Amino acid sequence: MIHIDLTDQPIDVAAALRTVEDDGAGAINTFIGAVRNKSTGRPVVRLEYEAYDSMALHQLRKVAEQAVEQWPMLKKVTVIHRKGTLHIGDVAVVVAVSTPHRAESFAACHYIIDTLKQVVTIWKKEFYEDGDVWVAAHP
Amino acid sequence: MNLKIALFGIAREIVGQSSLEVSAPEGQSVQALLAGLREQYPALGRLSSLAVAVNNEYAEDGVTLSERDEIALIPPVSGG
Question: What was the ipTM of the complex prediction?
Fold first, then answer.
């Protein structure tokens, strides 16, 4: 019921949603993170995501398991994160969860994406017309 | 003992390679390893945070390291 993936291929969002369908789930909640054209006012040309694969997969699974502990009614959880070079509009991450009722699906999806951003060993470098920056690296 | 440390993101760029061999006394702690690396590469000390992972888990300062561990330096993550 937990499906985790880290891929250098474009994420098939429709396929990801199908993995959380469940006859007992009246609610499917999805977060899709996409590449924005600006960062703190600066036009972004592209992003590069680098991952410590084994730890990222392990930590992603832990985050999903923590969500299941907190919301035991979760039927299915899917988290797919992209790595490599991404351009404006590309999908970087998909979190999809299914639950019997909607409130828990919102809460669990929110928890998973917020915790992912804090602990999962993936790094994003933003490229601009005139330079590049590792996001969040410096205070 | 010799510790092999995997490097990612800005830590990899600061050191200039994707892994590092460090010779350390037996029972070296995470804290001591970090202190030594920050001394050798001062730019590491200017990051918002710098953690050590041991066998795919975040390790507290007091954890002791062994040659058999898979060790990595974890600069501020920015997935999502």
Answer: 0.96
